[in-house]
Amino acid sequence: MADVFDAEKRSDIMRRVKSKKNKSTELRLIEIFKNHGITGWRRNYPVKGHPDFVFPKKKIAVFVDGCFWHGHDCRNTRPADHQDYWQKKRERNMKHDQEVTAMFEARGWTVLRIWECELKKKSESALLDKLENCYERENQKYGKDFEI
Ligand SMILES: [Zn+2]
User: Fold this and answer.
1) Does some domain include residue 14?
2) H helix or E strand, kind and range, residue 42
3) What CA dihedral angle connects 61, 67, 68 and 72, to 10 degrees?
4) Ligand 1 centroid from CA 51, angstroms
5) What is the pTM of this model?
6) Is 130 domain-assigned?
7) Which ranges of the chain does DSSP label H, i.e. alpha helix?
8) How far, in Å, is the centroid of ligand 1 from the Cα of 74?
9) Domain residues for 35?
10) 33-61, pLDDT tens digit by residue?
11) How far is the CA of 22 from the centre of ligand 1 (A)?
12) How many domains does the chain have?
């Protein structure tokens, strides 16, 4: 089935959707960090792989991934139209994500990927558990000076 937009227009639209979404999810995560007194994070930290947030001391790279773009298997993301188009794009993103994760891990970093849907209010305690588990692992590696 043909797309209603030509390719250029389509990628223009998607670029806008993507950047808007990234911004709001990042701001939401900052809010969660602040509400729970989580410190030590940096945004836009200049490190290869461009994580959304970094805990430099703990070598934790945090990525906030849009469910749709990164292929999360949740109900956020099941478009009925243009399945092939989206599927290809998602597969590319997922492959890229895996490569980036592997690159960080090879350098001794921990990668924490947070899904957009995990940023919802009702998922907040699960997200905090996830963050805490990640810190716990790092504390075991580096000594216990990092608490939420
Ligand atoms: Zn999701």
Assistant:
1) no
2) strand 42-43
3) 100
4) 18
5) 0.77
6) yes
7) 7-35, 67-70, 83-106, 124-142
8) 5
9) 20-141
10) 999 999 999 998 998 899 999 999 889 99
11) 14
12) 1
